[in-house]
Structure formats: C-alpha cells, structure tokens
UniProtKB/TrEMBL annotation:
Belongs to the zinc-containing alcohol dehydrogenase family. Its EC number is 1.1.1.306. PROSITE patterns: ADH_ZINC (PS00059). This is S-(Hydroxymethyl)mycothiol dehydrogenase. Residues 10-130 form the Alcohol dehydrogenase-like N-terminal domain. InterPro entries: ADH-like_C, ADH-like_N, ADH_Zn_CS, GroES-like_sf, MycoS_dep_FDH, NAD(P)-bd_dom_sf. The keyword Ribosomal protein does not apply. Residues 172-303 form the Alcohol dehydrogenase-like C-terminal domain. Its cofactor is Zn(2+). It comes from Rhodococcoides corynebacterioides.
C-alpha cells in the first residue's frame, strides 16, 4: 500500500472517486509481465465511482455523476468511427497527464484506468453515466469481463432467439456469454468446462446443458445436444488452440465461432485449409464484446435493475485493497467469479 498523486484534471480529463473495482485476470497478467514492462503499474480497471472533478471542455459528465469506467473512449475521427463502426475505434483516448508516486515516478494505469486506488484520472470518454440505484460492485464489472462475455454473445455472435449456443470455458467471461445468450432467448445453451463447480454455476446463468470436458469428446457432446448438427454459435472463452479447434468443429455448417478468450503471443494453430472453405460460416474475434459503452452499459444496468439479467451473481466476495493478492490466488484456483475491491 502506498500513496499516489492524482493531478487536477486537465482539458478533457476527469477525476473519479472509486467506489468499487473488480479483480480481473487482466490485472494478474499485467502483474506477471504478460502485457508489457512499463512498471510500475497501477492495476484495476473494472470500476465504478463518482465524478469528483472535471477539466476544461468536459461535457459528457459532471461532478456527482455515478459512472462506470471503460477502456474504449472512442475518438470519433478514425477510419472505423467515420465508417459508423465506433465499437472498432482504432484511436481510443486515455488521460494525457500521468498519475505518479509521491517521488514523481510515473505510473502506468492498467488499460488506461488504474482503479485499485481511492481516486483515478481518466479521459471523459472513459466515463459512462449509469443509474445510481445499481450496486456499485455489480456495475463496475461491466467495465471489462462481463461486457466482454455478454457482448461476445449478443454483439459479436449475434445470438438470437431459438439459436443453439455453446460456450467453452465457464469463468467470468464465459458465464457472462451464457447470461447474454439467455437474455436474447437462445433455446439451447451448452456450457463446457473441466470443473464441476464451474459447470454448476453456469446453470445459474442460463445454461440448459453442461459438458464435462475432462471425461468426453467435447465436439461429439455438443453435436449430440444439437440434433447432430452442431451449435449455431460457439464461443471460445478460453483462448487456446485446443479449445478454438473444438469450437470450430462443434459449430453447425455456416455457424459462427467467436473467440473472446485471449491467447498468448506464442500460441499457433495448424488446420487443413479446406475445412475453412467447406464449413462456411463466420470466424470472429470479439474485442471488449464489440461494445459501445455509452450504448451498452446503461441498457445492461437497466436490465439488471429490472431483474432480467443476474449480474449480481458475478460478485463472489467484497474485499479491501489489502486482499488483492489473495484474490489473485482464488481466481487461479477457480474459487471465485469476481472478487470486488470496495473503497
């Protein structure tokens, strides 16, 4: 635990009082050097809070607003934005000024946010105003993992009513994909994992069937549960060559594969090219659930408050800043979906 210095907000910048911040696997990847080596990092990015102060020119939020932070502050000017695809923005914004240690050492905020702290400095576009009635611990999780999973199903996979869906990997992102598929009315939702505890949790989010990948052929099992055809949409929430191949061969002809699990740079894939041609369909990667925060966050919060989306079930425990290392261990062991730091 240490003190940090938060500068007064400059043009387009906002200081946010953090209320809650989820402990995400990406934070662990930062800590272990899997992102880059721009130490020291200020971790934490699945956060909600209250706007404390705004800089010159800020128009989207004002002091007192309850916000969820996001790492896709779209620019409005890049080629994707100008073509009406802001969810693919190539030039997202972060705060210009740096937060520092008290000796002046500049900090690298995780995903441009850095919310394992009482306050943080972000770009105004990283703040999305949401209904203040939402539990802050729940709302903040939309800032990364929950949006990635829900969006992988609804935005990227375009799951629709009566579709058959399989989700490989039932951690936080996978369960969010299951919840998203259930929300839009998928008729069959198959959860695949190696862990019985995770498979049991998956049913709480809407899985109609489960497959224990440790004891059967995953592709055959998914086909058996879909009339022999395969699923319309298969979501790989693990991000390994083995699971991606399972997803590819477990989809129906002209079906869709969505990769939302993040592979490491050293992973490679070798497959017969003719299989790509002969099966048709779509192979997609989902970045942040292809979301547009200002569109998606308020809508999902509204559905949660109406009781239509069980986002509260993702909060496994509420902890303090001093508990983060233990939370990383619990995440590794599969004991929690999300530990949430309460400030």
């Amino acid at each position: 635990m240490t003190d940090i210095v938060i500068p007064d907000p400059g043009p387009g910048e906002v200081v946010v009082d953090i209320i809650a911040c989820g402990v995400c696997h990406t934070d662990l990847t930062y800590r272990d050097g899997g992102i880059n080596d721009d130490y020291p990092f200020l971790l934490g990015h699945e956060a909600s809070g209250t706007v404390e102060a705004v800089g010159a020119g800020v128009v989207n939020v004002r002091p007192g607003d309850v916000v969820v932070l996001n790492w896709r502050a779209v620019c409005g000017q890049c080629r994707a934005c100008k073509r009406g695809r802001p969810h693919l923005c190539f030039d997202t914004h972060n705060a210009t000024q740096k937060m520092t240690l008290t000796d002046g050492t500049e900090l690298s905020p995780a995903l441009g946010i850095g919310a394992f702290a009482e306050k943080t400095l972000v770009h105004e576009g990283q703040c999305t105003t949401v209904d203040a009635a939402a539990d802050p611990a729940v709302a903040g999780l939309l800032g990364c993992g929950l949006m990635a999973g829900i969006g992988a199903a609804i935005n990227t996979g375009a799951v629709d009513r009566d579709d058959t869906v399989a989700v490989i990997g039932c951690g936080g992102v996978g369960d969010a994909a299951i919840a998203g598929a259930a929300l839009v009315g998928a008729k069959t939702i198959i959860a695949v994992d190696l862990d019985d505890r995770k498979l049991a949790r998956a049913r709480e989010f809407g899985a109609t069937h489960t497959v224990d990948a440790s004891s059967c052929d995953v592709v055959a099992a998914i086909r058996d549960l879909t009339g022999g055809f395969g699923a319309d949409v298969v979501i790989d929430a693990v991000g390994r060559p083995e699971t991606w191949k399972q997803a590819f061969y477990a989809r129906d002809l002209a079906g869709t594969v969505v990769l939302v699990g993040v592979p490491t740079p050293t992973m490679t894939l070798e497959m017969p090219l003719v299989d790509f041609f002969s099966r048709g369909g779509a192979l997609k990667s989902s970045w942040y659930g292809d979301c547009l925060p200002e569109r998606d966050f308020p809508t999902l919060i509204s559905m949660y408050l109406q009781g239509r989306l069980p986002l509260d079930k993702f909060v496994s425990e509420r902890i303090g800043l001093h508990d983060i290392e233990e939370a990383f261990d619990k995440m590794h062991a599969g004991e929690v979906l999300r530990s949430v730091v309460m400030l």
